[in-house]
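A sample follows:
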Amino acid sequence: MPAPKPSTLGPLLPDRFRSPRGQKRVYLPNFTLTLLRTPFAPPNYATFITPLHLNKLDLKDYLYNLYGVEVLSVRSYVQQARVRQDKPGARLPKARRWYRPRALKKMTVEMPATSPFIYPKAPSDFTPWDKEMQERAQDAREQEQKAMGPMGPRLPKQDGKTLREQAEELLRGRKAWRPGWMDWDLGGKPKGEVGAGVGL
């Protein structure tokens, strides 16, 4: 049996086994990364919701090339969704037909301690975003969906309560009845409207 030939490999260098950084070229990425608010994590850790096909090297290259953020390590885990009956969007969910929604993948990256990232505080005044009107619109949509559902005819009507209160006010003399046509002029416009009675 011939003796094995001596190895021609040179000395092992530590840089040879380091993961590549910033070498994968990605043009027009079609995925979305969601940064989560993690108030209990250290300032040099950040958590993202990523697509299932995204791996650790992709996330490191993405953050380095786009934002110039150096990532020391990445930890990822896949969170399975709860099993539910039938597929979402079904009008009448069928019994014993199980469906598991798509899983959720989260990645936590560790950044150098010299460049921490502090998530901005949540605003206390939501007036510039008109949050109150959006909440009222959301409540109105939910009430309309309940009224259009199978239990809609059994739900108490909101208009009936309003009419009952108006009738009680009229009977007790708190309000005087006034027909609606008295608030309109002959031109078909409400009285006091801008442009009413102005000839051109």
